[in-house]
Design goal:
The complex is a heterodimer of chains A (229) and B (357). Chain A has 229 residues and is an all-alpha fold. Chain A contains ten helices and no strands. In chain A, helix 6 runs antiparallel to helix 7 and helix 7 runs antiparallel to helix 9. Classes of the chains: A mainly alpha (229), B alpha+beta (357).
């Protein structure tokens, strides 16, 4: 797990990455207590939005390795491509897991969420975090330049967050755009959280989780091609 | 980029998935999207992995789609069946059409037409892909054979040069041994006797005269042995430029004008061999295909290359492509780093240029 260790250290050393992926969400969890108590789904969507943006920073180290040529040295050592990718992605997902843990603990203890809701939020956000990391990884694999990758990612994230109902409710969008966001995973997280709020843990909720898993699988398969490393 | 059946297949798959998504936007059911996403993931898995077994997982897609159709009654599943039928045809799982076919006839006429169309497109793509694969295999096989022939040619050329070098060394050793064993002894003995003659000349002139005659006899024997050695050393057959001249002189139909220029002593045996082949083939061609009244052969050597020029006036037809004999000749010349060109104008010209080093 040497790759995991150093990937984690690199993520933690980057102050901006640490600030965006850990500190901001944690601060956000503790402010606006009324929102977290009476409309927790709004707070969860904002946390998800932050996760979506910060996932790029966390996975960016793979692209850095690719650009500066470190990847050649790493893969020349007895580390398989699969092991390298898995360990990096695990290290990237850890800060997101941390904020999910803090959110569910604080939600349960401080904001008196129902256990069912807390469990549902934890599962949804966990799968969403995995899909996010896979998405950022897949996105990076299509680019050779960090700048191009970064700015197009921001553009796409803003677009899909608008279309998926993370920033504004879907109903506020024009009719023909209301379900276009379905091609992105945040749309299914929002539907999952809405379903959880209205109906609890039912079959529909679990179908949404399966969709999130399939999104993660699709992104990992698309991005995990050896030649791009 | 060359358009292949795989490219068309991929484009049609993406188009199919997009159309199903547009269709889904009219109903927006979770089950339908789940199926759509599942099919997309399976498509990506198949696209990423070229192993033949991976293609067979299309039966999982079919199984899941049928479940969605029968249990959840998803409208997306109906479109998905046509999509999977297209994929099955492409991968060569033709019996799938029987499995799916029973359901198709229950549907609207437009759906039936769509399904039959995509099935036919899948079939056509499948046949195209098979032909494409066969052609690729054939090309690979030819490339492999060509590579083997080139390797063999290269090895033979190297071996020829080595044999030539070894022959030179062996011949040099033989000459050295002959001179040492036969001529050397006689000359050294005469030399020593002549030294004795010088010493005894004043004291005993008769003895000196006798020794002088003996020395002369030994020298005479030595000269005779040297003549024999030189005679034994001379080649039985002609080589190099002499061989080229001999071929020209022996041409039966018309006299061949043979001209040479330059120093040809440093041209190696294998190059002479190639030149000889070129000349033989060219003269044979003239004999077989042309009624030439005039043939001229020029051989020019410079420090770096040797040029053989053959010209005849017996042009019978004007053609731009050389025959197999000339093509083989060109191939042989190219293997020693040279170049062979033909020119058909008022006369037929063959020019062969080969670098010496």
């Amino acid at each position: 797990m040497i790759v995991f260790k150093y990937a984690l250290l690199r993520n933690l050393r980057s102050s901006f990455s640490l600030f965006a992926s850990c500190i901001v969400p944690v601060i956000f969890i503790f402010i606006y207590p009324e929102m977290w108590i009476y409309a927790p789904e709004a707070g969860v969507s904002m946390i998800a939005y932050l996760m979506l943006l910060s996932s790029y920073l966390l996975v960016g180290i793979i692209l850095e390795d690719q650009i500066d040529g470190s990847i050649i040295k790493i893969l020349a050592s007895p580390v398989s491509t699969f092991s390298y990718i898995v360990q990096n992605l695990l290290a990237s997902i850890l800060p997101l897991l941390l904020q999910i843990t803090i959110l569910v603990i604080v939600g349960q203890v401080r904001y008196n969420w129902k256990t069912e809701f807390t469990f549902g939020v934890a599962v949804s956000l966990l799968l969403f975090a995995i899909a996010n990391i896979a998405f950022a990884f897949c996105w990076n694999m299509f680019f050779k330049s960090k700048e191009t990758s970064k700015y197009t990612f921001i553009f796409v994230v803003i677009s899909i967050s608008l279309l998926s109902g993370m920033v504004v409710p879907i109903e506020a969008l024009p009719v023909f755009l209301q379900n276009m966001g379905a091609v992105s995973h945040p749309y299914w997280l929002m539907r999952s959280i809405n379903s959880l709020t209205l109906n609890g843990l039912n079959l529909e909720f679990w179908l949404f989780q399966i969709i999130l898993i399939l999104f993660a699988a699709a992104f990992l398969i698309l991005g995990g091609k050896r030649r791009t490393i | 980029m060359k358009l292949t059946p795989d490219h068309i297949f991929m484009i049609l798959n993406i188009a199919g998935l997009s159309l199903m998504f547009v269709n889904w936007l009219q109903v927006v059911d979770t089950a339908g999207f789940l199926l759509l996403l599942f099919l997309a993931v399976m498509f990506v898995v198949r696209k990423k992995n070229n192993h033949p077994l991976v293609k067979k997982i299309i039966f999982i897609d079919l199984f899941v789609t049928v479940i969605f159709l029968l249990i959840l009654d998803s409208s997306t599943a109906e479109s998905a069946l046509s999509f999977l039928l297209f994929q099955s045809m492409f991968f060569g799982f033709y019996p799938v059409v029987l499995l799916v076919g029973y359901h198709v006839f229950d549907r609207q006429f437009s759906s039936l037409v769509l399904t039959i169309s995509v099935t036919l497109i899948g079939l056509v793509l499948s046949f195209w892909k098979n032909e494409w694969s066969d052609r690729l295999k054939q090309r690979d096989s030819f490339s492999k054979k060509n590579f083997e022939l080139e390797s063999l040619q290269s090895e033979l050329t190297t071996a020829l040069a080595q044999v030539e070098q070894m022959s030179i060394v062996a011949e040099r050793s033989r000459i050295s041994a002959d001179i040492h064993d036969n001529v050397g002894h006689e000359i050294v003995a005469s030399y020593i006797t002549f030294q004795t003659v010088r010493k005894v000349m004043e004291k005993d002139p008769e003895k000196a005269l006798e020794l002088f005659d003996k020395s002369m006899n030994r020298l005479n024997v030595g000269v005779g042995k040297m003549r024999d050695a030189v005679h034994n050393m001379s080649a039985v057959t002609f080589t190099g430029v002499d061989r080229i001249r001999q071929i020209c002189e022996n041409y039966p139909k018309v006299p061949v004008i043979f001209l040479t220029s330059g120093d040809m002593t440093h041209v190696s045996i294998n190059i002479w061999h190639v030149l000889e082949t070129v000349l033989n083939e060219s003269l044979t061609n003239v004999m077989k295909h042309a009624d030439a009244a005039f043939i001229q052969v020029e051989l020019d050597a410079t420090k770096h290359l040797i040029r053989l020029f053959i010209e005849n006036d017996g042009v019978t037809s004007v053609t731009s492509s050389p025959g197999s004999g000339l093509r083989n000749l060109r191939y042989r010349v190219v293997t020693v780093g040279g170049n062979l060109t033909f020119d058909i104008d008022e006369t037929f010209k063959v020019v062969c240029v080969i670098p010496i080093n």
